[in-house]
Design brief:
5-stranded antiparallel beta sheet, 42% helix, 3-stranded antiparallel beta sheet, 493 residues, 12% strand, 14 helices
Length: 493
């Protein structure tokens, strides 16, 4: 009898690395392996080009040069926009984000803190952020502090009363909701601070852990390059060996073969006829000595496809295109770039959403409350829920790979009604209100300076609808005999 089964469920000589007995949950794996993963990822970021490049890509595409921008959309009861409230909140948040105000240390702005948190997510799988409120927390009464992952007490795992428990330094209640974080006041390696290391319990209302959730029950994040780290190590070792071999191969060397074992070259056994050879040198070799040239063939042509294959595999594990990670455009074409960039940008958009849902939303909720209490944003506190409902975020967008064709397609979609101008503008990380305000300000600037308004502005200016003809107006061509007067009136209207 042949029993039907899944061959992939059993390890063999060719496919191994997993067991049959028992199973390990994601949280158990993270608790045991997180230190090794993070140390490996840190080593790669300090020594390997691709890891360094990926972290720069992460900051560039998730945060961007202008950060993930706050865009308020507070509405009144009649559905119209509350423009004064929107402007006050946006301007207040911009003032809070300046250098010296947003962070506890005062050395990093809000944009700089976003970049640090993005680096933590890319390198370590997540980043801790602590909140400070009230007096001593700046003029807005609110500041943040990015926390090193090393300060989390990963060894603290124990049950608590009522079904609560602590796992890897994170405290949960009976419903698996995070209630607190147990962190050290300083990392173990920073004994030079002169303070004794002590554990502190920080409530979840005062601290958050930002990560990109991928698995059910996940508590700690995984470095984004987890599957590519071993390939990076092997590729780096191979590349270093290839460079050493190429260095020796580039050096022209000459060996001397002694024909008679009893004879000696020169006056001593270790002497050779020539240590250095200059251009145009001719000389007589001693008896019994024959020159043997050394002509190495390394590096070979197989190195380039091998390194490209390794780079492609690493880029796939990180979720980016090979051309983006390696900056190698030698074999790229328009079709491959368009397909690769589209998939990659969708991944960046998903990460952007995870970041502003897990970080920005929570920060603006606490900031706005303290900004109103401190008087920095003059709005009524009783309407705080209405203000928070209008919070939206505008992450960065990307220019088109083929701007001319995409612009033509967008114009056709607008004409047919398949897309809206708001959707098209949002693809580039902007809002329609900002674009319209800027265009109106530009037209006004031209008119204020008595300069001719550009043609693009005139074409974009909506023309008023034609007025219906008055009764005493002379008859026009549309009033010719035989025409339907009702149809003419409807057309004029």
């Amino acid at each position: 009898m042949v029993t039907r089964s899944y061959r992939a469920a059993r390890p063999d000589r060719l496919a191994n690395g997993f067991g049959l007995i028992g199973s390990v949950t994601t949280r158990d794996e993270m608790r045991r392996e997180i230190r090794g993963l993070i140390n490996h990822s840190r080593h790669a970021s300090h020594n390997f080009d691709y890891q360094r490049a990926y972290e720069m890509l992460f900051r560039r595409h998730v945060i961007g040069p202008n950060g993930i921008r706050l865009q308020m959309d507070v509405r009144k009861r009649d559905g119209s926009k509350d423009v004064p409230a929107n402007q006050k909140i946006e301007r207040g948040f911009a003032r809070w984000g300046k250098l010296g105000t947003a962070t506890r240390c005062g050395r990093v702005s809000w944009h700089g803190a976003q970049c640090q948190i993005a680096t933590g997510i890319a390198r370590e799988g997540g980043a801790f952020v602590r909140f400070y409120e009230g007096r001593g927390a700046g003029k807005f009464g609110f500041q943040i502090e990015p926390i090193l992952f090393d300060r989390l007490d990963l060894d603290l795992t124990m049950p608590l009363a009522g079904g609560a428990y602590i796992e890897a330094g994170i405290e949960f209640d009976a419903s698996d909701r995070i209630t607190a974080y147990h962190i050290w006041n300083r990392p173990d390696s920073e004994a030079h601070r002169g303070t004794a290391q002590r554990r502190e319990r920080v409530p979840a209302s005062k601290m958050i852990y930002v990560l990109v959730p991928e698995e059910i029950g996940q508590v700690l994040g995984v470095p984004r390059s987890a599957t590519a780290l071993r390939l990076m190590n092997m590729s780096e070792g191979y590349q270093e060996s290839a460079m050493t071999a190429a260095n020796y191969g580039a050096a022209q060397m000459m060996f001397f073969e002694q024909q008679q074992s009893g004879a000696q070259i020169g006056g001593a056994v270790d002497d050779v006829p020539f240590d250095e050879i200059e251009a145009g040198t001719t000389a007589m070799l001693p008896p019994g000595v024959k020159p043997v040239p050394h002509v190495p063939t390394y590096p070979e042509a197989a190195i380039e496809p091998f390194m490209r294959h390794m780079g492609t595999s690493q880029a796939a594990g990180m979720g980016v295109a090979y051309e983006t990670l390696t900056a190698d455009l030698s074999k790229a074409n328009f079709s491959s770039l368009r397909a690769g960039k589209g998939e990659e940008r969708d991944e960046w958009r998903m990460i952007q959403r995870a970041v502003f849902e897990g970080l920005h939303d929570l920060i603006v909720q606490r900031w706005l409350r303290m900004a109103i209490l401190s008087g920095q944003v003059m709005l009524p506190m009783l309407q705080l829920p209405r203000f928070l409902d209008g919070v939206t975020w505008r992450p960065r967008g990307w220019p088109s790979v083929n701007p001319k064709d995409d612009a033509t397609a967008n114009a056709a979609d607008l004409t047919s009604g398949a897309r809206s101008l708001t959707e098209i503008v949002a693809e580039r990380g902007r809002s329609l209100d900002d674009v319209l305000d800027e265009r109106a300000a530009e037209i006004k600037a031209f008119k204020d300076r008595e300069l001719p308004v550009p043609k693009w502005a005139l074409d974009a200016t909506p023309t008023p609808p034609p007025e219906p003809p008055k009764e005493d107006d002379p008859p026009g061509p549309e009033d010719a005999p035989g025409d339907d007067p009702e149809g003419s009136e409807q057309e004029a209207t």
